[in-house]
Amino acid sequence: MKIGLLQAGHLADTIVETHGDYDRLYPELLKNQGFVFASYPVVDGVFPDGPGAADGWLISGSRHGAYEDHDWIPPLEHLIRNIRDSGVPLVGICFGHQIIAQALGGRVEKFDGGWAIGPTDYAEDDNTLTLNAWHQDQVTRRPDGARVTASNAFCENAMLTYGDRIWTIQAHPEFENNFIHDLMEARGRGIVPDPILDAAEARLAEPIDNDTIAQRIGAFFRGARTS
After folding, report:
1. From CA 14, how far away is CA 140, in angstroms rounded?
2. Rounded to a whole number, what is the distance in angstroms from the first to the last CA of the chain?
3. Lower CB density within 10 Å: C or N end of the chain?
């Protein structure tokens, strides 16, 4: 099964040297599930021909805001709507979660409550998921038809589903704890308040649920769709 990665940003050079860019992180997250990946760096203006170029689509994280004025944002939103209309499965992570909501009629804003950084707990029915977060922007108004499937007091719309075709998450299941440590050193200090970084650092020895989400993403891509 071919997964098209719509790469909406690049990681800092110091992070890429150690961990690779998004086009390495997502194949690593979903390894051993039978997927092949084709990367389209939409942030650089490189787009696929259309929804039929892959069997499923994944929109990456990004340092950019979905509401910012970039030439590649409108065509990405247009592509999102075409993917939705085509019925091809679509997954969005962090920025991907946000831009899908915005393209489908929701609102994304810089959240007044500040930052979510590092291991973060999300309520999902009777379960708790712990995943690494790195964001200040969030979806503040859901599009029509979007259903919340995980949330917390800081981020109400932390995981959204749109029927059986679109599944999005605000957290970063592709970020391991050592990645968050290095990201805090590369981009955190002087940008994110120190108490938030210190609290995140204190949790980096805790287990996170990346493997659980990786299996869910794989199952979502392979799942049968209703007409």
Report:
1. 32
2. 20
3. C
Distance between CA atoms of residues 166 and 83, nearest Å = 9
Q: Checking phi first, is residue 175 left (phi over 0); if not, alpha (psi -120 to 50) or beta? A: beta
Query: Could you give the count of Cα atoms lying within 13 Å of 144 in the half-sphere of its Cβ?
Result: 1
Q: Average pLDDT of 76-81?
A: 98
Contact 210, 131 (CB under 8 A): yes
Encoded amino acid at 108, one letter: V
In the block, residue with structure tokens 């992180």 = 25
What is the DSSP code (8-state) at residue 105? T
The ranges assigned to domains in the chain are 2-109+137-175+209-222
CATH of domain 2-109+137-175+209-222: 3.40.50.880
Question: Which positions ≥6 away from 86 have C-beta within 8 Å?
Answer: 50, 51, 52
Summarised one tens digit per residue, pLDDT across range 102-132 is: 999 999 999 988 999 999 999 998 899 999 9
Q: Quick check: pTM over 0.70?
A: yes
**What span, in angstroms and rounded, lies between the C-alpha atoms of 143 and 66?**
15
